[in-house]
Write a structure and sequence with these properties.
two-stranded antiparallel ribbon; 16% strand; alpha/beta; 15 helices; single chain
Length: 409
């Protein structure tokens, strides 16, 4: 058993459209960078957890994707586990890697994830999201959306993921309960687009005003296109190790993993956000880490839409319930504010290659805790939190993973 778990290497490709790169090439690039960052060679990796959610449905590689990707890099003869957990795939791979280290099964373990979602068939890509709810009961999904956001007739708004309808219904519920406005949702998007301008790995790097965001193509009320994550290709990788492994790495710049907790939802009253699964999982993560929400200096949360950031910042206790929208308007969650959230640009601007997204959050936060983020740096950041959610089941995300990290600054 290892008393501590450490991040010692990180790697991430630019996120965007990679027409000339395969899924395994994207993974390989990120893993190679993580190995170099840790100062180790492939033969020193003792186990690996590899995340991808779309390689099977989009390209037919439903099995052994991780084994193939790692063999190409010279990572051989080790346990390789393929991970799929909807949009929480990356953080789930990371949680499994840290658990493997804590259990004493290995001293240096890799968590990696990659997707190539732009395969030339937008309809096929959108269809992937139709498997992230209970497909045996589609009528239950519609009934849930009606209960959350009311039955509204918006006509034909064009191609979009079903999850934009899901997040829109949740947003309308929040607006009804707390008075959250469409302008506040747009303020979150404007903040994240501004943050991404200086992130060389972000899919979109163009600042947008609140008015521009509100005037963009509607998806499902209150959401417009710039409030939502794009379809993105990319890879990310993180190397974690035990105390014994860290002692072997003289050049490493370690960041401590205080907690990595994954959990699922429960049957509850969906007319209120009280009892949302992120609340319970966050409570477990804070307890395990030995910190409180007010000690968090910087966070990356799963903003598949701008509203999701409003909800998660409340559920994580970073702002009071119902105050998420006002915090965006006041600048409280922007760089320079009390609690910067998504300094990377978040999923809305950085992009959302499903299997890599949670690991990309950890890449960003490790950089923040090392003081490496340049103009996006949160001064003196010492405690960081990542929240990566996935799927939808009975009124909330099906799974959420929360990671808490501590830097040496």
């Amino acid at each position: 058993m290892s008393d501590n778990t450490w991040i010692v290497g990180i790697g991430m490709t630019p996120f965007g459209k990679h027409a000339d790169s395969s899924v395994h090439e994207l993974a390989g690039s990120a893993i190679t960078d993580a190995l170099a960052d840790a100062g180790i060679v492939p033969e020193e990796v003792e186990a690996a957890f590899y995340g991808t959610a779309t390689h099977g449905p989009l390209e037919g590689q439903s099995m052994i994707s991780g084994e193939i990707a790692l063999r190409e890099l010279g990572i051989q003869r080790i346990p390789v586990f393929n991970v799929e957990n909807a949009c929480a795939t990356g953080a789930s791979a990371f949680a499994l890697a840290t658990t493997y280290v804590r259990a004493g099964e290995a001293d240096i373990v890799l968590a990696a994830g990659a997707e190539k979602m732009n395969v030339g068939d937008p309809e096929l890509t959108m269809s992937v999201f139709d498997s992230a709810y209970d497909v045996a009961r589609p009528e239950d999904l519609q009934a849930t959306l009606d209960a959350l956001g009311g039955d509204i007739d918006e006509g034909d708004l064009g191609r979009r993921s079903i999850f934009m309808d899901i997040y829109a219904a949740m947003a309308r519920s929040h607006m009804r309960q707390y008075g959250t406005t469409r302008e506040q949702v747009a303020a979150v998007a404007a903040k994240n687009h501004a943050h991404a301008v200086d992130n060389e790995r972000a899919h979109y790097r163009k600042a947008m005003t609140i008015d521009e965001i509100l005037a963009a193509r509607p998806l499902s009320y209150p959401l417009t296109v710039p409030m939502c994550a794009p379809v993105t290709d990319g890879g990310a990788a993180v190397l974690v190790c035990s105390d014994v492994g860290l002692a072997r790495l003289s050049s490493a710049r370690p960041v401590q993993v205080l907690a990595s907790v994954v959990g699922t939802g429960s049957d509850r009253d969906i007319t209120t956000f009280d009892g949302h699964l992120s609340q319970g999982i966050a409570a477990r993560a804070y307890e395990r880490a030995g910190v409180t929400a007010d000690q968090v200096d910087v966070a990356e949360v799963h903003d598949a839409t701008a509203f999701a950031e409003i909800l998660q910042r409340e559920m994580l206790g970073l702002v009071p319930a119902g105050a998420g929208g006002r915090a965006a308007e006041s600048g409280e969650t922007a760089l320079g504010g009390r609690i910067p959230i998504n300094p990377s640009g978040g999923l809305e601007s950085k992009g959302h290659p499903i299997g890599a997204s949670g690991l990309a959050q950890i890449f960003e936060l490790t950089g923040q805790l090392r003081g490496d983020c340049g103009t996006r740096q949160v001064p003196g950041a010492r405690i960081a939190l990542a929240e990566n959610g996935g799927g939808f089941h009975r009124g909330e995300e099906a799974v959420t993973a929360i990671t808490i990290l501590k830097g040496a600054q």
